[in-house]
Amino acid sequence: MQTVEQALGKLEKSRFRSSFHLKAEQIDYIDKQGWETIEKHARDFVRERLAPAYPANDVKQTPMKGHPVFIAQHATGCCCRGCLYKWYRVEQGKPLTDIQQEKIVRLLMAWIRKDYNLRKTSSPRISRP
After folding, report:
1. What CA–CA distance (Å, rounded) separates 93 from 39?
2. Is the pTM of this model over 0.85?
3. How far apart are CA 45 and CA 32, in angstroms?
4. Which of the 8 DSSP states describes residue 49?
5. Which residues make Cβ contacts (< 8 Å) with residue 124, sequence separation at least 6?
6. 58 vs 70: CA distance, rounded Å
């Protein structure tokens, strides 16, 4: 079983997965909402959109923009059950266990924190009215 750091390293080698990054509006959202709220949203999205054995609109249930967790889901291959199987061999057609959900949330939050820190330290902030 791979660690969060190993998973992030593997994802960085994927041209598609490594193309996702937080934008200024997502950074601002994190700053306004706080990390606890972002993690709560991650737990809710995973439970509601990924955990069922057959999620509604599977493959299309995660928007490509908007919430920081959505961006993280695509960046980490945790956006649908097909990607979960491809990247992590999570069996399809069975509900996610609490442990699987927790691992996904930890991976999402690690990716968000890493990209957030990278964006905060390397990009000049755009002033907004």
Report:
1. 26
2. yes
3. 19
4. I
5. none
6. 14
